[in-house]
Amino acid sequence: MSTSKIRIVLFGSFYRGYYLIAELLDGPMKDHFELAGVATDDVGQSFISGDKRVWQYPHAPQEETMVEDECLRRGLPVYKGRVKSDVFYEIYEQQWRPDLCISGTFGQRIDARLFEFPKFGFFNTHPCVEDGWPSKYAGPNPFQALRDDGHDHTTAALHRVDSGFDTGELIAMSQRIAMPPHASVVDMHKLTAPVIAKFAVPVLAKLAGVAA
Fold first, then answer.
1. 5, 48, 171, 196: which is deepest, by most CB within 10 A?
2. What's the mean per-residue pLDDT of the chain?
3. Are the beta carbons of 43 and 14 closer than 8 angstroms?
4. Domain extent listing, the chain
5. What is the pLDDT of residue 164?
6. Counting beta carbons within 10 angstroms of the beta carbon of residue 141, is it exposed (0 to 12), middle (13 to 18) or buried (19 or more)?
7. Residue 174 burial class via C-beta count within 10 angstroms: exposed 0-12, middle 13-18, buried 19 and up
8. Per-residue confidence band for 165, with pLDDT thresholds at 50, 70 and 90
9. Is 182 exposed, middle or buried (0-12, 13-18, 19+ CB in 10 A)?
10. Which residue in 4, 25, 13, 72 sits closest to 201, CA to CA?
């Protein structure tokens, strides 16, 4: 069993990124984690493919920077540039040195240099339904795809990050979360984010050898 804090790095933005920070730092497992750094979306940059993701929908300007603002408020290191770059590799490997990584609403692909570094693994949270794995709902806009197919609920997969797109080993699946008929994609991000954070963090702790 691990006796020292787990150095975790978050790759996230919007509500899922925000609630993952809150759960890691304030939730029941807070004494087991050290949030070593946060990489988040810079919505103005083309490399995050904002036109294919949640940022294409109406949202408040403050929602674009809510993770960055929370990091600044808490004194956490935050990065908004390209993650597949020598600048970030040095920060990641020399300064942040994660034992484990978690991604939630993040607009850049993760390469092998990043996902192979943490000794306990690199994981992603992805909305889907109980349709097998990999899910039909892999991709940048799963809530819209679920809505288009008439689903009245979602779940969230916690899976390993690999070289594919939402194809890595399935680790755990969350409880069902209802999708109200009137709920927009942005609404679904807001409704599901705290549930996903509370589901994912204890699983991550267990993967790193921490007893619940």
1. 196
2. 96
3. no
4. 6-124+158-167+186-207
5. 86
6. middle
7. buried
8. confident
9. exposed
10. 25
Residue with tokens 């949030």: 35
**Considering the domain 6-124+158-167+186-207 in this protein, what is its CATH number?**
3.40.50
CB atoms within 10 A of CB 63: 18
Q: What is the pLDDT of residues 3-39, one digit of tens each?
A: 689 999 999 999 999 999 999 999 999 999 999 999 9
Integer angstrom CA distances of residue 15 from 20, 164, 206: 8, 24, 24
- Structure-token match 């680790």, residue found: 171
